[in-house]
Design goal:
single chain; 323 residues; mainly beta; Jelly Rolls; 2 domains; 8-stranded antiparallel sheet; 7-stranded antiparallel sheet; 1 helix; 42% strand; globular
Length: 323
């Protein structure tokens, strides 16, 4: 799976925020982490000029660069970066670089230290999703975007793999399928309308577009998604949430793991949060949700307890990405 399928760690939807920028005269820095695609309406002028859905600085008349600092909503290992200059055609920066750091606690922007380069100064094209793969295995909490010398960037996407701090996890009751806890999507049958990452995203879905929805099937098959769990554990409670899906919820669903079925095919209701107790004691590292025949699901939660092996896996991942 391409790194561009990894979740955007900086997205406002996951709690990301632009905590500082040295300039935002033409367009606000907060636009950088908006989850939706950038939009543009010509001839919409405000007091400072054309309105842009992005971050835009003034034209420099002295030497220097412009910068913005983003706190990641989900700290983790960065696998790729997209500097999207959508609709910035004559006013985009010709170059950009990205640094990252790992902070403890809740420091102010000026207190951040230990910056490491994750994307060296690279050329950008205007009105383009400029995509860059990133290699490395360190966990970061913040990134700093530098543009040379000035201009506009519509969105900054920081794709990666979340790494939770075990200090704040309850090993006795944990959502084994949560993106924020380190779970990830292994594969799925269809992602026509929206990403399966939405299924395991933090918080409830605010609208239908924040769930996972497949195309309408015209055959005898069914759609499915497989999830790598945060660590090995025993599932005790399954939550299947069809909130906001009213005329397009699946009719039925089942959940299975290697070694057995946790939930046999159960009927679902539209726009409903379904809870199912699990009696199985099968330790699992992955799970599969099957929906019949197709449709949309807002959230999948697999509440359970970590095995001893699962606890070691989380501890080892923390150590491997922070030391």
């Amino acid at each position: 799976m391409s790194w561009e399928q990894d979740p955007d760690l900086a997205s406002r939807r996951f709690g990301g925020a632009v905590v500082w920028a040295n300039d935002e005269l033409f367009a606000e820095r907060e636009n950088l982490v908006k989850p939706e695609d950038p939009a543009f309406q010509p001839y919409t002028f405000g007091h400072k000029g054309q309105v842009y859905d992005g971050w835009e600085t003034r034209r420099r008349r002295t030497a220097g660069v412009d910068q913005a600092i983003i706190r990641l909503g989900m700290p983790g290992v960065i696998t790729g970066i997209v500097v999207d200059t959508a609709f910035f055609k004559g006013n985009y920066p010709p170059f950009a670089s990205v640094e990252a750091c790992a902070a403890v606690g809740y420091p102010a922007p000026e207190e951040l230290t230990g910056w490491e380069t994750v994307l060296a100064k690279s050329p950008l094209a205007g009105d383009t999703r400029n995509a860059f793969a990133v290699t490395g295995s360190r966990r970061f909490t913040h990134v700093r975007l530098t543009i040379y010398p000035d201009g506009g960037v519509a969105r900054l996407r920081v794709h990666g793999s979340p790494v939770p701090d075990p200090t704040f996890l309850d090993f006795g009751r944990i959502d084994l399928a949560a993106l924020a806890n380190g779970a990830s999507i292994a594969d799925c049958s269809n992602r026509f309308y929206s990403s399966p990452n939405n299924l395991i995203a933090p918080g409830p879905a605010a609208v239908m577009g924040e769930g996972w929805e497949t195309a309408r099937r015209r055959d005898d098959g069914n759609d499915w998604v497989s999830v790598r769990l945060a660590a090995e554990g025993v599932v005790r409670l399954i939550e299947l949430d069809t909130s906001h899906f009213k005329g397009n919820a699946p009719g039925w669903a089942s959940v299975s793991v290697l070694g057995g079925e946790l939930l046999s095919r159960e009927r679902l209701q539209p726009d409903t949060r379904h809870l199912f107790l699990v009696s199985s004691d099968i330790p699992a590292s992955a799970a599969r949700l099957d929906v019949y025949p197709d449709g949309g699901m807002a959230r999948l939660r697999l509440w359970g307890t970590l095995t001893d092996r699962g606890r070691r896996q989380l501890a080892d991942r923390w150590t491997d990405t922070t030391t």
